[in-house]
Fold this sequence. Notes:
By secondary structure, the protein is of the alpha/beta class. 43% of the residues lie in helices and 10% in strands. The chain folds into 2 domains: 1-55, Helicase, Ruva Protein, domain 3 (Orthogonal Bundle), CATH 1.10.8; 61-265, CATH 3.40.525.10. The chain has a 5-stranded mixed sheet with strand order 1-2-3-4-5. The longest helix has 27 residues, at 109-135. The chain is globular and about 55 Å long.
Amino acid sequence: MKVVDAFRQVLLLGELLLPRHDDYHVMLRFLRARKYDVEKTKQMWTEMLQWRKEFGADTIMEDFEFNELDEVMQYYPRGIMVWTRMEDLYYIERLGLIDPTKLMQVTTMDRYVKYHVQEFERTFAVKFPTCSISAKQPIDQSTAILDVQGVGLKNFNKNARDLVTCLQKIDGDNYPETLNQMFIINAGSGFRMLWNTIKSFLDPKTTAKIHVLGNKYQSKLLEIIDASELLEFLGGTCTCVDRGGCMRSDKGPWKDQEIMKMVQNGDHKCSNKCETPHAEEKTIPEDEGVVVVASKVLIP
């Protein structure tokens, strides 16, 4: 808490803190990413603000429409859901069903990156806050489940490598410390060869959170996810037939209107840990600065 408070004062003095980002856990994530070195974290924060301004991340939720989502989901099936036991998010991707060539025929690299950022923005603006209120504790990380059945070098052509590299840099630089842990399931010999290549694109801190499993993964997943919340093809009983299937259900506490009202009122923010006794504090008005919020895809 002392380091977060010190970092907050540095941001205030440098006119780098907006009310929208004045949250204990937001600042804590950035500090963790730079091993609590305040000066290095300030540099990271400053570069993040500049990126957001240049990329247009502050308004991407309103300005960008990803009309090709249905087609994209055919060639890149993925989804985010909540499990009841931990009141947390888990994120699923079926990498063995990805077709990078056809994916780039229905969208472009630039548009997919924008969609990726837009999804992160929604996660930080809506999903994490509603989960935090529902769980009555801060939620700002998710667990990823990557089904790699059938994955081999054919799934990792130049388009795929370029996309992974681009998204990894955006995530690491601007949305740090959002991965709780990752389970890679159905990892056969083809994927294990590919994994050695993929690891070279990832931060070592990320790879330390990754568990590569074979086809006997069900018991491990059921240790952390209720069977009723785990997809049927993963060994659970969830089908979401009334929502078009689990991968597209988008179910979670953000569907609760009362919880959404609390988010809009800022009830999810940890302002009690951010307040300090200093009287002279200068926070930039939102219309004079840049805003922060948050992504995920191929490799979170």
